[in-house]
Amino acid sequence: MDPKRKEQLSEIQKKILIHQGYRFVGSHSAVKNCEWTKKSLRGGGNCYKCTFYGIRSHQCLQMTTSMFCASRCKFCWRGQKAPIGKTWYGPIDSPEHIINHSIEEHLKLLTGFGSNLKTNDHKKEELKDVRHVALSLTGEPITYPLINEILDGFHKRRISTFLVTNAQFPNELEKIKHVTQLYLSIDAPTKEKLKEIDRPLFKDYWERMNKCLDLLSTRRYRTCIRLSLIKYENMENFEEYAKLISKGSPDFVELKSYMWVGESQKNYKVENMPYMEDIKIFMENILEFLPGYEFLSSHESSRAILLGKKSLNKKHWINFSKFFELVNSKKDYVAEDYSSEVMQPNK
After folding, report:
1. What is the model's pTM?
2. Does the residue 297 lie in any domain?
3. I need a surface site. Which of 26, 168, 170, 213 has the fewest CB within 10 A?
4. Among 33, 58, 36, which Cα is nearest to 48's?
C-alpha cells in the first residue's frame, strides 16, 4: 500500500462504482440502495432481515465507513473495485458528516420512487424516515477509527445498527461498545479452506479469526455468525463448523446461500449456488453438532435460514424501543433484554 496515498479509492475505481449505483460520502464512506429496498417500495416484499428481525427494507440504509478490505473473497460480487489494506490510511471524516450525508445520498437515490405509480403511498413517506443502517456494503466498516462514535450517532437518532466484519480485526472488534447486532462472517470450517476462499492478506488470518470468535462470546449485545454457503466448496465438515460456532457462542447463526452475481461469476459457476433444499440439508447436519441451537425462521427468496440459541426461547425479533432505552440508560444489558417473541415497530 502506498503510504502517500490520501484516499482509499482511485478515480478509476470511483467511476466504476458510481456507474454501479454507489454514491460516495466524504473520503472513505459510501452508500448504495439495496435491491430489497426498491422491491419493498414497489410492494414486492421485504428481505430476510424483516422476516428474521423485523427490519423493514424501505427504511433501511446500506452503507460502509471504510472501502478497504483485508480479504479478497472468491464469492464476493464486488470483485477488485475496492482497495485492499491491513490498516487504516487517509483522512478521517467526522461521524456527523458521514451520517448526515449518507442518509442524504441514500434518499437521493430513491427520489424516482416518489413519482413511480407502483410505489406504495404509505411507504413513500416512511422511506424518508430511515430506521436502520446495515454497515456491510463493502470493505471493513469496523476499521473506521471513530466506529463507536458513529454507532452512537445512529442510536441517538433511533436508527438501529447491524455491523458486519470478516473476523480479521480483533482489536477493532474488542472496542465496540454498543451495536444492535454484531456479525462475524465465517466462510470456511478449516484453515486451509478459509485461505482458499477468502484469500486473506494477513498471514495469521486463522488466529485472527479465532480471536474474534473468542471476543464474540464475551459480547453482551446481540451477536450473529453468518455462513455464506457455496455448493461443492464449503458445505461439509459440519463438526468443524460447529466447533467454530460454539467458540463464538453467537445468539444467532445465519445460513445463507452464495449468490452467483457480479465478479464472483469469474470464480464460480451457477451450479455453486445452493438451492433452499441444500441449505435445509446443511442445517439438519450442522444441528447434530449444535445441541444448544434450533431452527427459528427461513426466507425462501434469499435462500436463508436462521438458527438461534434455545436459551433465547425463540425471541429472534428486535425490540427496537427497548434497545434504545437500554443504550441511553447506560445500564448493563444482555441480548435477551431487547429480544422479542413477536415483531416490534421499528421506531
Report:
1. 0.93
2. yes
3. 26
4. 36
